[in-house]
Amino acid sequence: MDPVSFLTEPMTFTFMQRGLIASVIVGIVCAVMGTFVVLKGLAFIGDAVSHATFPGLVVAYLLGLPLYVGGAVAAVATALAIGVVSRRARLRFDTSVGVLFAGTFAVGVLLFSTIKNYVADLLGYLLGNVLGIGLGDLVQLAILGIAVLAIVLTIRKELLFATFDPLGAAASGLPVAALEYLLLALLGVTIVVSIQAVGIIMVVAMLVTPSATAQLLVVRFGQMIAIAAVIAAVSAVVGLYLSFYLNLASGASIVLVETLVFLVALLLGPRTGLWSRLSRTAPAG
Amino acid sequence: MTTDELGAVLPGQRVAERAGVATDLRTASPPSVVVDRVSAGYGNRPALVDVSLSIQAGSLLAVIGPNGAGKSTLLKLIAGLIRPWSGTLTVLGGQPGSGARRIAYVPQAEVVDWEFPVTVGEVVMMGRYGRIGLGRSPRRDDAERVAAALATVGMGDASNRQIGALSGGQRRRVFLARAIAAEPELYLLDEPVTGVDARTQEDLMDVLEAEARAGKTVVATTHDLICAAQRFHEAAFLNGRLVAHGSADLVLDQDLLAATYGGHVLVLPGDGGRVVLDDAHHHDEAAGQRHFHDETR
């Protein structure tokens, strides 16, 4: 097969066109939000919120509501609940998150077990299937994703200050608590948007891996966001083509490409690269 | 200080009154900060009890006291970061937090994540955010202020360096530059000279002294009693309560220190002066040394 048709042939399929658009949007939104997730140490929260969408999806299914709505309500509510609990309760942050995390997912599994017939839709949300996305869902995903991006990029310097030095930011008049809740709510929306592509279990990788990779490569916040977005977009395309030609699960392919890029950066990166460290410490003779 | 003078300045209440008179004579303008019978704390644990204190504009005030004395709590109260349990604060004529753009607060070094991917220039620009406004980008004027502030603290060529690549002293310089870039009327600095070398301490104190002379109010916590005595104009002694507030000369008053630090401070006779040994605290442990100051007045 010649290189041109290697690239163009998958795009003759509608499901690949939609899948590609959805994956790239999800990748970029996750990468931008993920920059704050990584810098604020919210990875575990991302995982908790994504698992918490499951009961929301099941409840929406049982009530005959759009699954998206159920997932979004559960995700945003959990994200904000974590924010409140961590500010009020005198528990370690990861402890309160762990309690909410397992508890909400158990509710989802319990409700799921009451459904008599097989529900492919709901199982699809666990592992994600971006190639099965419908036009309506794609439009929804694009609108929500672009809205999240627009909000985050508009207030990125305030989010940066509040993340880097919450006390200094609050003293300078920034509404640090409100910004934190907004960030958590946006994280909830991001996760719901992303679940369709990569599933509940792997969303956290989409959030964390590209920004973690970028942090290995650059020292500026703006560069970190940009590099993470590029890594995510490229990984989405490469992962989807791999999925097409090798007949692999789409979400897992994207996540694995991102993970490979991370490993390469870890080994060869200019800042923390093991390779440069080894060559520096190696004896000269 | 002679024994007679010691008798005259103790107990602490009388010190505060005496200093208050002196301060009123120096300037007639309204005070920058008025703390009126304030108590505050965290959870159920009180950190400050019934503290009253008036800080004049143009003051260069050192807040001293042992660990857990409420020094950082006092700064946070003035900055509006925490609310008092009781009592009232007036800051720059309003409620704490209401004049946030006229205040620059610099936290202790250890609450900052130094691996964070920001450059020196980006950190100092944060001081401008309050003026730039939500959703807007910095303008040329902001960039000039940032460059000027960095030059003031002797870090003019470091704008593009990542903060993690800086030494402890350079980091304190950068955070002071961020405060300067905000063009505040009131500086609230939590241990600005902790863990820095002598040269950096002198430089930073020169900058703060110039700001105070220009009419800005500077309030800084410190564990460095010699620095407090020699470079600040006033000192407030905290020990959960306000032990005393007056001229910085009082910092070397043995009985006042004993009242503030309990048994944890030693003022020893030494060659050519006295040696003041502050309570060992966690910052010092991180640096692998205790505060050991040679007084050479």
The number of helical segments of chain A is 13
CATH architecture group name of chain A: Orthogonal Bundle
Separation, N- and C-terminal Cα atoms of chain B:
12 Å
Strand element count of chain A: 0
What would the CATH topology of chain B be? Rossmann fold
Mean pLDDT of chain B: 82
Largest interface: A-B, 26 and 35 residues
What's the rounded overall pLDDT mean of chain A? Answer: 87
Enter the CATH topology name of chain A: ABC transporter involved in vitamin B12 uptake, BtuC
CATH architecture of chain B: 3-Layer(aba) Sandwich
- Morphology call of chain A: globular
* Count of the domains of chain A: 1
Our Rg estimate of chain B from Cα atoms comes to 19 Å
What's the SSE blueprint?
The complex is a heterodimer of chains A (285) and B (297).
Chain A: H1 3-8, H2 14-40, H3 43-63, H4 67-88, H5 93-114, H6 120-127, H7 135-154, H8 156-164, H9 166-171, H10 176-217, H11 221-246, H12 250-268, H13 274-281
Helix pairs in contact in A: 2-7, 2-10, 2-11, 3-4, 3-5, 3-10, 4-5, 4-10, 6-10, 7-10, 10-11, 10-12, 11-12
Chain B: H1 3-9, H2 12-26, E1 33-42, E2 45-55, E3 60-64, H3 71-79, E4 86-91, E5 103-106, H4 120-126, H5 129-132, H6 140-152, H7 168-181, E6 186-190, H8 198-213, E7 217-221, H9 225-231, E8 234-239, E9 241-247, H10 254-261, E10 266-270, E11 273-277, H11 282-287, E12 293-294
Parallel strand pairs in B: 3-7, 3-8, 5-6, 6-7
Antiparallel strand pairs in B: 1-2, 1-4, 8-9, 10-11, 11-12
Helix pairs in contact in B: 4-7, 6-7
